[in-house]
Amino acid sequence: NFQPAARVTRIKPSPSVAAAARAKELKAAGKDIVDMTVGEPDFDTPDSVKAVGIAAIEAGDTKYTPVNGTPALRKAIRNRMAQRTGITYGDDQISVGGGAKQIIFVALMASVDNDAEVIIPAPYWVSYPDMVLANEGKPVIVSCPESDGFKLSAEALEAAITPKTRWLILNAPSNPTGAAYSDSELKALADVLDRHPHVWVMTDEIYDEIWFEDRPLSSIVKVAPHLADRIFVVNGVSKSYAMTGWRIGYGVGPAPLIGAINKLQSQMSSCPASMSQAAAAAAMEGDQSFITDCVKVYKQRRDFAVASINAIPELSCSTPSGAFYLYPNCSGVIGKVTPEGKTIENDLDFVLYLLDSGVAAIHGAAYGLSPHFRISTATSTDLVEEACRRIAAACAALK
Ligand code: PLP
């Protein structure tokens, strides 16, 4: 007769984690499935980084660390942030946690209650709305259609702000679209924020290294440094260095917010794993050629997959500027009938049909913008090719 707390009944399990688990189960049961749900690099953590983790364990670096991370990790974070933003963050402006996911959750826990509003541009990373709900906030979803490049406009931001707005969450390059804001787009958002000093910005930059454009990736903290006292930057090592299982993420921003986060962390986890912190610091401070090599491969897969999807008459796909996902539009399959006689009413029906056709993907409704579906290219190049073949065959079989 366990009764979960209201914060649990308000939320749902992560749809992307659930879809990945379903694909794994079907594969384990012997079904031939190409899993395009994965949200983690298919590459292994670089050997040089693993070696630092192993050496840390052997050297007895196996104890609690300060709540806000080891000095070595903090230094690596400070150096990287200074390099990318020109801002030098002090020790009281850095928090570390068990992945960017935990940092975002704790930042919301530290700042949101009593139905405070959090503006979330859609399509969004599946976890933001549920994290806001779990922490007694109110997600305010703002639809950002493909015709706007899946990006929040200044007008839409202005219209969404109320006296109860606490945060605007930005995520670029975006999961699921790979879209990213230009300097001028961010300046326009910053102009709106200038008029609303009670609104803070959480900018989730976890995919910032997976970037395909010739121009540098922009960030609101670079474009509007005068807003730094209400910008919280989130990042981590999971995606850039293929370190998802090491669980290290970080957030930098105003000292009062960081203090509140660290106070919660001191009661929640004490600190992330000591050996993971050593490995993460080494990854950030060491040779960065691993990233360049991975990005080259992600870009080849992106180009192949975008071209393949766009060659399918019922689908269309804009080209992501970063990250390792595609978010094709599937409006052309809505209303069509599968060989089994089922009408495809929405993007969930379509991904279930794709699953029957041997491809696991995630439906757009989970990201707040339909009709779309997300496929990940963080899987081997051969599998990306096979998935595209299967999607094309599945679409061709629709009537
Ligand atoms: N933010 C976004 C947009 C993500 O896609 C993810 C992972 O899927 C995370 C944050 C969390 O990353 P981690 O907790 O592994 O650092």
Kindly summarize this structure in a few lines:
GO terms for molecular function: L-aspartate:2-oxoglutarate aminotransferase activity; pyridoxal phosphate binding. It comes from Devosia crocina. The protein has about 400 residues and is of the alpha/beta class.
Question: Can you describe what's shown?
Answer:
- The chain has 399 residues and is of the alpha/beta class.
- The chain has 2 domains: 6-44 and 290-396, Aspartate Aminotransferase, domain 1; 63-285, Type I PLP-dependent aspartate aminotransferase-like (Major domain) (Aspartate Aminotransferase, domain 2).
- The protein has 14 helices and 12 strands.
- The chain has helices spanning 6-9, 15-28, 47-58, 71-85, 100-111, 127-134, 154-160, 183-194, 220-223, 255-268, 274-285, 289-310, 347-356, 381-396; strands at 34-35, 94-97, 117-122, 138-143, 165-171, 200-204, 231-236, 249-252, 325-326, 359-360, 362-363, 373-376.
- The strands form 3 sheets. It has a 7-stranded mixed beta sheet, sandwiched between helices. A 3-stranded antiparallel beta sheet has the order 9-12-11. Strands 1-10 form a two-stranded parallel sheet.
- α6 links the parallel β3 (117-122) and β4.
- α3 (47-58) runs antiparallel to α11 (274-285), α5 (100-111) runs parallel beside α6 (127-134) and α12 packs parallel to α14 (381-396).
- The chain starts with 5 loop residues before the first helix and ends with a helix.
- The mean pLDDT is 96.
- The structure holds pyridoxal-5'-phosphate.
- Pyridoxal-5'-phosphate is lined by residues 39, 99-101, 125, 171, 175, 204, 206, 236, 238, 244, 249.
